[in-house]
Design goal:
The structure is a single chain. The protein is an alpha+beta fold. It has one domain. The chain starts with 10 loop residues before the first helix and ends in a 6-residue tail after the last strand.
Length: about 140
């Protein structure tokens, strides 16, 4: 079973991202805590096959990449086709959004060379943000 993150960003790690250009200057510590808690709630829901609940945008990351996985079915265990089966997935961020309507205008094509929505039309939909070229 794939895991939604090697680990979750601590407030200190997220502040380091902020120091490198991520603008969170107006965020309170409570807002930061909520942002980090969303990724924990998503992972818990995924593992227990329940619907996640969170009200703020959250982030998780996989700095070691991931094993091949379906882009459309969170629980697929066998390869589908190249248009759906995500391979060569190196380090990436996963952005969790509480309102799935926010994902409507974002590509679901994992071969597009940039961010895309993984697991669209499921409660686990999230934005995948590659941190390096995937070689496609």
């Amino acid at each position: 079973m794939p895991v939604l993150g090697d680990a979750y960003l601590t407030a200190t790690q997220f502040r380091a991202l902020e120091a490198n250009g991520l603008d969170l200057t107006d965020w309170s510590d409570a807002q930061m805590d909520e942002l980090l808690a969303a990724s924990s709630r998503m992972a818990d829901a995924y593992i227990n096959q329940t619907e996640p609940t969170y009200s703020e945008i959250g982030f998780a990351y996989m700095l070691q990449g991931d094993t091949p996985v379906s882009n459309s079915d969170p629980y697929a265990t066998e390869a589908t086709g190249p248009e759906d089966w995500v391979t060569d997935l190196g380090p990436h961020l996963m952005m969790l959004v509480p309102d799935m309507q926010m994902l409507a205008s974002i590509s679901t094509d994992h071969l597009n060379g940039g961010p895309w929505v993984m697991w669209p039309n499921t409660p686990y939909a999230h934005i995948m943000i590659p941190l390096e070229s995937r070689g496609h």
